[in-house]
Design goal:
The protein is mostly helical. The protein has helices at about 5-25, 30-55. The protein has one domain (about 5-55). The longest helix has 28 residues, at about 30-55. The N and C termini lie close together (about 10 Å). The mean pLDDT is about 90.
Amino acid sequence: MSIAKKIAHKAEAIKGSSKKAAGRGTGSRRLQAEGRGDQIKGNVKQAAAKIKDAFKH
């Protein structure tokens, strides 16, 4: 897995946690849910990359 993809996956997870926090601050359940979804998606991609790298070596 390239470094650029790893950074992109981490950025997606961070973006999600930021959206979730903004949703909490504004009281927007929609924004919280979007943020939670983005965060989970980024975390899953990171986990998949780790598994893929483990089987490469």
